[in-house]
Amino acid sequence: MSSAALSVIGSIADHHATLSTRQIRALLATIASDILDTELPTAQQPATTPQPSTTQLPTDTGLGMKYEALLQESLKLFHKNGYHDTTIADIAAAAGMPASGIYRYFAGKADILSAAFRRAADRVSADLSEALAAEPDPGLVLDRLVDAYIARSFASPELAYLYYTEKGNLPADDARILHNIQRATVERWAQLVTDVRPATGLAEARYIVHATFTLVVDLGRLADYDDSAETRTLVRTLVRVTLLGADTCRRRGGLSVDGMSA
Fold this sequence. Notes:
Blueprint: H1 2-10, H2 21-36, H3 63-81, H4 88-95, H5 99-102, H6 109-134, H7 138-155, H8 157-165, H9 172-196, H10 202-222, H11 229-244, H12 246-252
């Protein structure tokens, strides 16, 4: 819970959304207070967390599989060693191919990083489209989005972490495109938050959404991405309190600040 509160406070360094200092202080104080007042659910109260739809990788050993192998091994190395300390030779060795073979699939290391970011952004955008198509109620849409975001982060921790740590190493053109995609995603989530929390302005909602995204990554790393029902329940509880607020969680029921599950 302390880590969750600190994560929310630290999330203001991850974005450039605009809000006055007074509003930032008040908002962060409210979120941190809600988090620290939360009664966490016990292991006997697991949440039902639907898995997001995923695209199956090709089963042959052709170009598709080699591309995926390079991308996955790169993600692991970027996550373990950092982008700058990972070389093309390291990636080639991990994927079991000569370094020259990488250039059949990627123009260079920066191109691999861009591909990873595009994949992460596309998955978040796809989850948003699916949730909006499946539910008319904004609160239920947010519930689906939270479940999908946690599921994806725990299933692919390297990709989730990379998405928040290596943005500064993207080529300028790719960084601009990614920024526009991320901004559109945050804006749609923020609109949903204001639908559920009418007293919250759109500018504040953007801060709340950014805090939510950061919280999932930080709690996942704290829990070593233990993909158990208990861990997901704890993370989901703290994420919902952050995103919806304690009062809204109480009104809507489900996993709320009193620790009870629907």
